[in-house]
Amino acid sequence: MASRSIFQVHVFLILALATTAFSKALSPYYYEKVCPKALPTIKRIVEAAVSKERRMGASLLRLHNHDCFVQGCDASVLLDATSTIDSEKNAFSNINSARGFEVIDKIKKKVDKICGRPVVSCADILAVAARDSVVALGGPTWKVPLGRRDSNTANRTLANSDIPSPFMDLPALIDNFKKHGLGERDLVALSGGHTLGFAHCRNFRERIYSGTNINSDFAKKRRKTCPRKGGDTKLAPIDPTPARFDNSYFSNLLKEKGLFVSDQALFSNGSTDGLVKTYSYNPKAFSTDFVKSMIKMGNIKVLTGKRGQIRKNCRKVNSYY
What we know:
The structure is a single chain. The protein has helices spanning 2-24, 38-52, 55-68, 101-115, 122-136, 156-162, 170-179, 184-191, 205-210, 216-223, 248-254, 261-264, 273-281, 283-297; strands spanning 198-200, 235-237. By secondary structure, it is mainly α. The chain folds into 2 domains: 38-162, Peroxidase, domain 1 (Orthogonal Bundle); 170-296, Peroxidase, domain 2 (Orthogonal Bundle). Strands 1-2 form a two-stranded antiparallel sheet. Helix 2 (38-52) runs antiparallel to helix 4 (101-115), helix 3 (55-68) packs antiparallel against helix 5 (122-136) and helix 11 (248-254) crosses helix 13.
C-alpha cells in the first residue's frame, strides 16, 4: 500500500508540473476565444503600412528582434522615457534608427477597440507584426506562439550591451546569441532578416573605407552615398533586394559584399561559412530555419500568467504600477 501511495504521489506531481508548464506556455491559439478578430486586424494594418512604405516591413521585424534581445520579448523597446524609465529607444542601436512605433500604436488602438478591452499585449503585437511584415514582403509564414505579457520596465544599458552590434566579429556574435539561448544556426538564419531594409552610413562607414575582406567595386559604390565624414544617417540597402524577402543576402556574402562587419563575419573562413553557402543556393532551407529561429527567439524570457501586464498604451506602463 505504501509503495502504491508513493507512486500516486509521483504521478500527481508529474501531472501538476506538466499542467503548470502548459499553463505558462505560449500558444498560437491564445486569442482564438477571447478575441478572434485580433490577428486579422494586425495583418490588415501591417499590410497597409508595408504597401504604403516597403521599408516599414524591415522596421517592424527589427523592432521585435531588438525587443527580444533586451529583457526578453516583453515590449520594453516600446516604452518612452520617463523619470523612472530609461528608454531603450535611446540606446545606440535604436536612437534615430528604430522605426514603426506609430504603426504599433495604430494596431494597439484598433485591436483594443475590436476586442472591447486591452486583451492583446504589445509584446504579442510586435511578434505578429514581424511575421506579417515578412509575409507581406514575400517571405514564409508561421504560426506565432502567443500569450506574452508586457514589462513595466525598460533597460537602456542592457540594450547597449545585448543588442548585436553591426561591428561585431564572429566570436562576439556567437557569444551574444549564446547568451540568449540561441546557437550558430539561429545566428545565421536570423541575420538573414537583413535581406530586408536599409542601414545608416555610420554603421558601415568603417567597413567600406578600411575593410580588408570587402569587394572593391561594392565599397566604391557605397562610398558614393556614405562620405568619410558626415552623412551619418544617409541610407544604403543591406542587400540588393531590400524590399523582398529572399536569400540574396547570403549570395552577397559569398562575394564579400556584406554591408556590416557583422554581416561579412558570417562568411569569413569561420564555423558559419557552411550555413551561408547552404542558404545561398537553397532558399527553402533558409526560410525553414528562419521560421524555426524566429519562433525560438520569440520565446526568450517571456512574461506569462500574472507576471507583467497588458498595457493600455504601448508607450507607457499602466498607471496602477
